[in-house]
User: Fold these one by one.
Assistant:
Number 1:
Amino acid sequence: MIDYFSVFTTGGIVLWQKCYQPVSANILDSLVADIFIEDRRGKAGSDSSMTKDRYTVKWTSSNDFGIIIVAVYQSLLQITFIDELLASVKKLFTTLYADELKAKDSDHLPVCHFGDYFDVRYAELEKSTAGRKPVSAVAAAAAAADDAEEDSEDAGLKSEDLEKDELEPARNGAGSKSPKPLKLSGLAKRGGRRGGRGGSKSASPMSRESSNGDDSSKKSAKKKLRKWDADGTARDVSDDEGPLDFSASKKANGSAPDDDSAVNSQLLEDADVSKWGSKTKSGDFVLKDLSSEINSILASSDEKSDNSSGSVLSSGFGYFRNIIGSKVLSEADMENALNGMKDHLMKKNVAPEVAQHLCDVVRKSLVGTKTGSWTSIEKTVRVAMEDALRKILTPSTSVDLLHEIQRVKSGSSARPYVISVVGVNGVGKSTNLSKIAYWLLQNDMKLLIAACDTFRSGAVEQLRVHARNLKKLTEREGGKIELFEKGYGKDAAVIARDAIAYGNEQGYDVVLIDTAGRRHNDTRLMSSLEKFAKYANPDKIVMVGEALVGTDSVQQARNFNAAFGPNRNLDFFLISKCDTVGDMIGSMVNMTYSTGIPVLFVGTGQMYTDLRTLSVPWAVNMLMS
Amino acid sequence: MSAEDSPLIPLEGTEMAGGGGGYPLPVYLGGLAIACLIAFAVYSFIFSKTHGVAAAGPTFIIAGPSGAGKTALFTLLRYGEKSTTLPSIEQNISTSYRLPSLPDTAKPFVLIDTPGHQKLRQSMFDVLQVSQAARTIHGVLFVVDASAVSKPEKLREAAEYLYDVLRVTEKVRGGSDVLVAANKSELFTAVPAKRLRTLLEAEVQKIRETRTKAIGKVGLDGEKEEEEDGDSATVGGDGWLGLRDGKPFRFEDLESDVMVVGGSVETGKVDDWVGWMEERAVN
């Protein structure tokens, strides 16, 4: 069911992993990078799951230990217990290996023999859900077969496969029936579930039994639990009394009237015995101990977290800790600082949605960590926020336009490099296009400007003026620039295609395409962009967005990014009019956040030379000032 | 010391008891609390100094693009075993790395493995700059996947990162030593170290051409000139790296000593790299 499960440090060292199905390292790497570095979780993605291609990833993390736990499985499958599994693995792992993980800079890698714990817990959860969810018989059979294989592999009991196969039909029968008696009563409900589990399947019956026992005696003290453990085992060996005690009661409660399950239990008993035969005694003990240990750990950490909340002394001490530092941060501690930070960001024109997300990121990254010495919470939050902003604004691939143009120009099939600008009306598409043109002319490129705004009157003339100016400016240095125009009213996509063909014939280096401005929520206008992308197929599609726009920039970026069809996205943003907003450059963050596409250029004035590349430290400074 | 200390304690005690008549008890408790606080504050202040790890002791930094094998190299060097890895999100830091050939009494090294993802590289430059300023840097191990550089975009990525690293190492007089560790030499597609060197030089040459012509960064208009008259003649504020003599770029032109050495973390063939570190360790 699960393809891959792993516990790794934030440093990238895998502490423990289990691979059920081979998942290529590339996919894993890109998943981890997407989730934890690029923060690309999709629009619908919650903060603990992501679906990409055919895989779904769920994760949880523990900041105080610096570990991340991920489970990867096929998106087709609905695994209901994943969250529970992740939570319990986190608890188990942090409890069992606390010393190993906390030990900074020990002389060996943290050794985590977690496999047995995981298998037991996994089997438990799987069983508990097998009875609960309405699975189709086929799916159940498939799953059962799957697990039977896996577990038998684990135990090295290949010979048992046959027996299990025989069991399967019966198990499935019980599995699909068991939900019915669930409606009995509180106690019966528990038992019923057990019954369902027991009936549904069991690759390692011993673990099932022990889990039954543990669960039913969960409310009693730990010691008692252990005592039973030993007792149970002892009886297990001598006769059938021990396991029958529980299985009998549970079957009476659960799917009692079913002859099927009686047979089933009988069969299981047989399987049980045969397992005894082939398995070493010590091995079985381990299994049982683990199960109870797991449950006691899970129970104890619950208590601990209850105790830790609210004590006058600790809160008083916490105040001093805030001044001196070395305080373990909780969500409540950060609430004030984060609210302040959110307001601050919103004043900088960051959309509320984005500001909230940033605060969530910071909260997540800080909760459970210790503040540095002499560092207040506010300072810590601030530093974390700077990091988060830097992470959003830094591009994940570097864009070197000149280099790419050179490559296309000198490649085997030389052709002009095509850049097109899109955007909402009046953001400065033509102006910034000519700024880019000026820069390219300075670098001895031959340019063709295609006037594909065939809608707004004066658009072509405007470009003609730009082209003339640029020609005059760079004539002495041998710049070559020409305007390709076809008048008004024609289809922009066709003109663009013709322009590129013309540019190719005439040996131009770069074709710059200007498009008509369009409102991002006008589907009629936006839909023509898809055709445009198909016909012109630009190397780079630049969206020009103005720094002046506020919250709407999120939606603008999203809609434009989605307008070019499923296989084409924007390549980068050019944020214009940055000189008009001072330090309120939040739109940059909005746009990069909502699409994951970097800001490359920034327009800073009215001159042809007033184009700059984005400096991330500058932007972060502006936003945090 | 203890002989001196012991008479002091009763002395203090008697003084406090004698003066105790004048002040109510809470004042004493408060004073005691403040004293404790100060003691704790001093302690934690001293402790906080160790946070600037890179400045604390002789440092080696592992850098390089994502997927090159940095973290695996880190665990191999530090723990003697190669770990399975996923992309790093944070740095791996060891403050007690001991080179095998050096005696145990020698000061241990700080070994920092930095994330290779483009979005996280800033942390590497921070550490590098801190350690250069504190003169604790002994070398940068720039790990490159030698089997991937046959793809132009991978070569480009590696060269761009290396270029940025060199621009920082060239800032200080004499430069810092950089080892380009051509990892994964066990793979069939791996490029030999010599070839990698020429590939990287050619790529850096291209990068410095285009970087010089690139549009300036916003908000840094004034700083450009400042950078230009830095210590070193081999790095200009405009992104020029190496000598301005019209010849193609060569690593030899730099003040930093750049070596390209092959090896493999997978098969444990890292002796040459460790040897390089040992050479730098004694400096």
Number 2:
Amino acid sequence: MIRVELRKLLCSRRTWVTIALIDALPVLVAVLLAVTGVGPRPGTGPAFLSAVLTDGTLYPLAALAMVVPLFLPVAVAVTAGEAVAGEGQAGTLRYVLIRPVGRTRLLVAKLVAVVVFALLAVVVVAATAYVVGVLLLGQQDVTTGTATFSGTSLTTPELVLRTLMSLAYAMLCMLGVAAIALFCSTLVDTPLAAALGAIAVLIASTLLLTLDAASALHPWLITRYWLAFTDLFRDPIFWRDILRGIGLQLLYVAVFLGAAWANFTTKDVTR
Amino acid sequence: MTEPVIRTAGLTKRFGRVTAVDGVDLDVREGDVYGFLGANGSGKTTTVRMLLGLVLATRGEAEVLGRPMPRHRQEVLPQVGALVEGPGAYESMSGRANLRLFDAMGSAGPAGGRRTRERRIGEVLERVGLGGIDRRPVKAYSLGMRQRLGLASALLRSPRLLVLDEPTNGLDPQGIHEIRELLLELNRGGVTVFLSSHLLAEIEQMCTRVGVLDRGRLVLQDDLAALQGPTGRTEVVTDDPGRAASLLGDAVEGRDGDRLLVRADDTGTLNRRLVEAGCRVTLLAPERRTLEQVVLAASAGAGDRRERAS
């Protein structure tokens, strides 16, 4: 079933259009930076963006910091929201289930497809950002290495390792979104409602984070540690928020996947 | 003794306070073409969904192909082909691509090598009259074509049992005829067909057994031949119905224009009496009940009517 879901994902034009659109923003920003040469002052604007003017190899991280807060979660929520409700709306869910495909198996296959989608998006964004960054913004002399936030230098292998770690972290954050959207998808009849449900959770979380009165809730909000991957570029790595972020995302994944499973396996499929 | 293919005992489904299916005892035997009749909203589709494990019963048991459902769906469903409440397909893909996907689903995965699978898909498409489809996506299909595609998908695994919910919906008269012939051919090859419909004519032309659902209750279940048995009356058409009526006296139980309904033990004797009295008989036949009469007598009214409580 996983193979079937992946084939559906990869053969769908929508998948690639979505990824291209997500990819468009960092490319546009890179072009603007290269043309104007005006970057945000250090410490303002999206993470890493002030650094990329001097070093294009950091641009994948800047691109990631741009798409992780909004674009990527929206795309993941839409894809995961589609999972069960979309099949229901298209009238294919009942035919899939009587093939028979077990409900748990279907849910797992859907989740894998969403993860692959997020992975594809992240990889495409990072890869194009690297190419665009090096081409448009130039590369610093490799021997001097890339500067961390803490002012020390990173060697290229170290930089690659830390970049991969941040990609993995971003993926885990997307898994949390996927779990919520998947749960919504087993709950409602239309994929739109499911996606909006998940997005609403993200917006609420972002909003509450700006509110001091909600500070007791902050450690439990899903988006709280999303940008903690920038801490991987401190020297030494500042682990506290990253580890908390990993724990929190795993908690969200466990709770919402469990709820999705419990709901879907006992649900009457009447569509 | 033929094996029961579908057997339910006290099958009940409640949605909140509404009882959609109420204590249904179905009995479908191997080789049957079983007509499952009922007005819209009488619970046919919910029953079908319970048989397939899509809707979970509130109470009661269901056995399909000798095994309890939905517990044994992994063994039962690969031998069942179904069309439930209209066809469903991935709209942006071609019919062939859809069948490839559905063929690859399920616990067993796709059976056989690539060439076997392609041949199987080609065969079912040919069978349902879609042998010539091109790469157009399903969203460009007419309802009839979608229906045929759904049927093709149901036939992919060479099922022992076909469960079809309104399979001729959206087809033109030629299409309906074709599908009927196809189903009868499959049935001759040993496939049991469970056909749910609200079209009496369709059931009457095809089925050997009939079950009638009325507001969630199974009000009738019998062989079609038994249901349509003679009523003990004879239908008589003569050129002088007035004279015939006075001649036969109290035996005449009904009159409709030229047509008399006569209670008679023996049609031959009746014929002789009329002819000897000088009445020209143009038609003389034992009266049989139509399926419509049987169904209307058994059920209370249209299922989707909601009368105001007085």
